[in-house]
Amino acid sequence: MKLALLTVLATVGAVTVNPLPQPQSIEWLNENAIVFNPCANLQLNIDNELVEKNLNRVLNSVLETKYYPQAIEKPISSYQPFPTGTVKRGNGAIDSITITIENSSIPLQLGADESYNLTIDNNAINIDSVSTWGSIQALKTLQQLVVYEKGQFFIEGSVRIEDHPNYPHRGVMLDSARNFLSVKKIKEQIDIMSLVKLNVLHWHITDTQLWPLQLESIPGMIEGAYLEREQYSKNDVEDIINYAYERGIRVIPEIDMPGHSRAGYINVNEDVLACQHSWWSNDDYSLHTAVEPPASQLDILNNETYLMVEKIYNEVSGLFQDDVFHVGADELQANCYNYSQLFVDWIKANLSRTYRDLSQYWIDHSIPIFRKIPNRRLMMWEDILTTPEAAFTIPQDVILQSWSDYLRGSNNIKKLTSKGFDVVVSLNNYLYLDCGYGGFVTNDPRYLDSPQNDEFNTGNGGSWCNPYKTWQRIYDFDFTTNLTDSEQKHILGAEAALWSEQVDNTVLTQKLWPRLAALAESVWSGNRDSNGNYRTNWLSQRIFNFREWLVALGYDALPLVPKYCLQNPHACDLYLNQTVYNDYT
Ligand SMILES: *[C@@H]1O[C@H](CO)[C@@H](O)[C@H](O)[C@H]1NC(C)=O
Ligand SMILES: *[C@@H]1O[C@H](CO)[C@@H](O)[C@H](O)[C@H]1NC(C)=O
Ligand SMILES: *[C@@H]1O[C@H](CO)[C@@H](O)[C@H](O)[C@H]1NC(C)=O
Ligand SMILES: *[C@@H]1O[C@H](CO)[C@@H](O)[C@H](O)[C@H]1NC(C)=O
Ligand SMILES: *[C@@H]1O[C@H](CO)[C@@H](O)[C@H](O)[C@H]1NC(C)=O
Ligand SMILES: *[C@@H]1O[C@H](CO)[C@@H](O)[C@H](O)[C@H]1NC(C)=O
Ligand SMILES: *[C@@H]1O[C@H](CO)[C@@H](O)[C@H](O)[C@H]1NC(C)=O
């Protein structure tokens, strides 16, 4: 134990520049700082527009930011020799980048190889990757290796990095359907995601409250937008997709169906909806028709529903090229359908039918529509197989997103992977970033300071998914707990989710960053050191620096600690004992 502790400390002491996510393997070969001049018109050996654009962005950003990490174990300037004087190209300074890409036609899709090797010594930077996407990841690492001090840009020593992600799906879900998120702000998140190698933006575009997407095939849908200036045109969508693509990030659209559907539909043909005029909560939770206002779901038994679903699916499919499309399927509220005459008659016609038959009806009638687009995998929330209203069967190749309770003894991730389903993990108790802010519903007397409200006000305080997820909670989450090897192979990765009932442009960046970087690291290279111990405390300096870097880059990322804590490594630890985590596992 003592030996292990010494090893860990020695490693941390030597690595002053500490990229996030931590690479799988990073080896500093010496401490001879290498001058790096971002203006030096570096020679790139290959003709690859994407790589070139990324390199230019890295160089410009390095130049503009002039970043120097404060949260280090040892001042970089104590290294010898420290370069001084005018930087001359070809005189101990890097003047070329050699990039080798095995196959630059590998498309950006689920499972695309993102591995890379990055070697920096004396005058040269070498990057080897299988795909273009691996080289882009390497450049993101390079961006974090260059520091600025005393008028010089430099890399602190020769270094060799071998790197690849643990999981192919590493993302965040943004919700632009409770409050609108502008194209500019979404692009800002894409920029930051790329810095930490997240590669999936899951875009929950529509919900009961808001339909912000213009459709040519059903022009009336956009009446479901809040404002004329809060809409996404076809060009906006293409702009976001291209912006993400250039940074190696896939955009997976979600049209949430058959629950979470109202805005837009209600303007075009409200016959395809059920319970759209019901009171959502009924003042008696057992009679509620929705989890949040306003109530309404697609009427699964109406033929016209499928005509509309097909038009929407086809047009949105044309906008998004990704090989995965999310079709929702979460939180179907059974009571809603008691407002549908079609449903009431359907039950009367056969009293053995249940809500499960209804969900199965949805699957049987919607999947053939979705299947008409080839080479495409569907993604759904896990509810379609885990709730009391679940369908009986769904196609085996559907990717399921697991979000609900992960109580001791009830583990949906295990249930689903053991049945052979591929799973993306988004458990609300670790990865929902909207939690911990209280509730948003109004006329809520539970906030009154009265004895009958004590439990509410000392407990969740209206936030159904308390507590707020801190970066430490996110990082410590072991989502493969209790999985067999074959079950683990069905984990595609993880996604944090930011539902936007209380989020819009003004707070978006702060609610995501820097804590999302903790997930970015755990899905890239894990949350354990080589001895199998949590390395959360070694993430602390990385994530504190990362936050300072974001601020230097001009982003409003939330402060995590008093700056004292980052300038004095580990001074703010709760325990002096650095292996205290072992007491809790
Ligand atoms: C390069 O990748 C493309 C797309 O995956 C594939 O079709 C092609 O065969 C690959 N080329 C080589 C030489 O492996
Ligand atoms: C990186 O280097 C290792 C060891 O030399 C090698 O096995 C691997 O294939 C290299 N990876 C890439 C992407 O070139
Ligand atoms: C819905 O379509 C089915 C099959 O085409 C047909 O049998 C049924 O009568 C239609 N129902 C309504 C309400 O139009
Ligand atoms: C809704 O209808 C179902 C089926 O007829 C019935 O079992 C259930 O009690 C009804 N729910 C409510 C809240 O009335
Ligand atoms: C009635 O519904 C049950 C449950 O779905 C089904 O097993 C049964 O075949 C149905 N009966 C008829 C006559 O359709
Ligand atoms: C893992 O398995 C143990 C032993 O069966 C159980 O106590 C624990 O709740 C499980 N945890 C999860 C997250 O499945
Ligand atoms: C630190 O905590 C670990 C786990 O409880 C314990 O085994 C170890 O003895 C402690 N080390 C010191 C120096 O107290």
Detailed description of the structure:
The chain is of the alpha/beta class and 585 residues long. Among the domains are: 5-163, 2-Layer Sandwich (Chitobiase, domain 2), CATH 3.30.379; 249-260 and 271-432, TIM Barrel. It is 31% helix and 16% strand. It contains 19 helices and 20 strands. The protein has helices at 2-14, 49-65, 132-145, 183-195, 234-246, 265-268, 303-319, 341-349, 355-371, 383-386, 412-418, 428-431, 454-458, 471-476, 485-488, 508-512, 516-525, 536-552, 563-567, and strands at residues 25-28, 34-36, 43-44, 93-94, 96-101, 116-121, 124-129, 146-149, 152-155, 159-163, 169-175, 200-204, 250-257, 273-274, 297-298, 324-328, 377-381, 399-402, 423-425, 491-498. The protein has an 8-stranded parallel barrel with strand order 11-12-13-16-17-18-19-20, surrounded by 5 helices. A 6-stranded mixed sheet has the order 1-10-6-7-5-3, with helices on one face. The protein has a 4-stranded mixed sheet with strand order 4-2-9-8. Helix 2 packs parallel to helix 3 and helix 4 runs parallel beside helix 5 (234-246). The longest helix has 17 residues, at 49-65. The model is unreliable at 1-15 and 78-91 (pLDDT under 50). The structure holds 2-acetamido-2-deoxy-beta-D-glucopyranose (NAG) (7 copies). Residues 115-117, 128-130, 162 line the site of one 2-acetamido-2-deoxy-beta-D-glucopyranose. Residues 167-526 form the Glycoside hydrolase family 20 catalytic domain. One of its GO terms (biological process) is carbohydrate metabolic process. This is Beta-hexosaminidase. It is an enzyme of class 3 (hydrolase). Keywords: Glycoprotein, Glycosidase, Hydrolase, Signal.
